[in-house]
């Protein structure tokens, strides 16, 4: 009888000893993160009061709008990257074409060559657009910040240029006059300047800076020059450069400077290009303002998309 009581009491004692172990197992927190399993078990008192959903937070997935903005930013910068590369290619082609001119005429020095503006503009636009493309594609905060900084720098230069135009119009007018006079002096030396001067004189129907007499300052058109162009003006000054035909007459302006004003007026445009260019610029003020506004809008759209992508990247890394 005593033996049976001892056998009956033994399972009861074992069950009482197992109760604390079961309670400890119940109090152990559940975690689905592999890092928690590898590090060990947390303290029961620290994790029992926490929300089970906070033990292993899941990073937020980007919304459809965020993905669309990211891909649109990539395509937007890709477009301007191609435009920048095209501008760079035109500048390099112009420099190489003038470097291979026959007779050793290489045009203007490299520092004052107009094609250098195309090269520098293409390099700047390509570098900034490439940073925007890679920043949006790779979600790189460093590249996106560089892209935003470059856009802010460009915007600052544009604002500074606008203020200079408004505050220093007379000095800029004098500088433009000196630049046009330099173009007249170096007309035969640089093919780009020659093309630019011919297009201005032909489209505005003008000749020289103040009048057709300004071509006397050119060493090739001066009456004391030994060549056949002495006492002449470019064919772009002629009122009828085709001479009522279909083939341009490159000699229509020869000997004009030796004529009187009335006789010269029957052959060439005697009015200067300075006043005509000023009148044309005032007439194009609306188009210039529209172009400036469009440029600012393009930069603003690119900056807003970059800021959105940068904000999404920062929010994602905050969960890391």
TrEMBL record:
Keyword tags: Membrane, Transmembrane, Transmembrane helix
Domain of life: Eukaryota
Annotated Pfam families: Tetraspanin
Predominant localisation class: membrane
Signal peptide positions on this chain: none
UniProt keyword Transmembrane helix, yes or no: yes
Membrane topology: Multi-pass membrane protein
Transmembrane annotation, as ranges: 74-96, 116-137, 143-167, 254-281, 287-307
SUPFAM superfamilies: Tetraspanin
InterPro entries recorded: Tetraspanin/Peripherin, Tetraspanin_CS, Tetraspanin_EC2_sf
Subcellular locations according to the entry: Membrane
GO cellular component: plasma membrane
Keyword Transport: no
Similarity field: Belongs to the tetraspanin (TM4SF) family.
Name of the protein: Tetraspanin-10
Organism expressing this protein natively: Pipra filicauda (Wire-tailed manakin)
């Amino acid at each position: 009888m005593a033996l049976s009581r001892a056998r009956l009491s033994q399972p009861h004692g074992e069950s009482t000893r197992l109760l604390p172990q079961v309670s400890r197992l119940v109090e152990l927190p559940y975690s689905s993160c592999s890092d928690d399993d590898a590090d060990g078990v947390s303290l029961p008192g620290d994790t029992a009061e926490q929300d089970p959903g906070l033990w292993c937070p899941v990073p937020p997935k980007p919304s459809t709008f965020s993905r669309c903005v990211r891909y649109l930013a990539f395509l937007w910068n890709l477009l301007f990257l191609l435009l920048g590369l095209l501008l760079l290619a035109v500048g390099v082609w112009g420099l190489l074409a003038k470097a291979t001119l026959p007779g050793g005429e290489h045009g203007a020095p490299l520092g004052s060559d107009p094609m250098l503006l195309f090269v520098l503009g293409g390099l700047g636009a390509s570098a900034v657009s490439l940073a925007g493309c890679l920043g949006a594609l790779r979600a790189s905060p460093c590249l996106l910040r560089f892209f935003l900084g470059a856009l802010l720098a460009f915007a600052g230069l544009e604002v500074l240029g606008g203020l200079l135009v408004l505050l220093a119009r007379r000095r800029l007018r004098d500088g433009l006059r000196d630049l046009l006079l330099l173009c007249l002096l170096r007309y035969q030396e640089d093919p780009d300047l020659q093309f630019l001067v011919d297009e201005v004189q032909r489209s505005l129907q003008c000749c020289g800076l103040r009048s057709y007499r300004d071509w006397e300052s050119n060493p090739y058109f001066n009456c004391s020059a030994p060549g056949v162009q002495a006492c002449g003006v470019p064919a772009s000054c002629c009122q009828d450069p085709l001479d009522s035909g279909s083939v341009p007459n490159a000699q229509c302006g020869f000997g004009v400077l030796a004529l009187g004003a009335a006789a010269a007026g029957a052959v060439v445009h005697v009015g200067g290009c300075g006043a005509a260019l000023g009148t044309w610029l005032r007439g194009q003020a609306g188009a210039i303002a529209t172009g400036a506004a469009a440029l600012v809008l393009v930069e603003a759209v690119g900056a807003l998309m970059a800021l959105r992508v940068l904000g999404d990247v920062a929010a994602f890394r905050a969960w890391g």
